[in-house]
Amino acid sequence: HIVVCGHTKCGGVQASLSGPKEFSPPLEGWLSHLRMVYRHHRKELDAIEDPDAKLDRLVDLNVIEQCKNVYRTAIVQQRLADNAAEGMPYSTPRIHGCVYDLATGYLKRVNWVTPDMEDPYDMTADEGQSEKYNLQKLLANNVRWAEAKKAEQPDFFEKLGSGHNPSMMWIGCADSRVPSNEVIGAESGEIFTHRNIANVVMNTDNSLMSGMTYAVDVLNVEHIVVCGHSNCGGIAASLTPTAFSPPLEGWLHHLANVYRLHASELDKIKDEKAKLRRLVELNVLEQCNNVAASAIVQAKQRESLAKGAPFPVPRIHGFVYDLENGSLEDLKWKDEIKDEVGTFKVRNDYAAMGMEDPADKEKGMFNRKPAGMAGGGSNPLKKMFGGN
Question: Judging by beta carbons within 10 Å of its beta carbon (0-12, 13-18, 19+), is residue 254 exposed, middle or buried?
Answer without folding.
Answer: buried
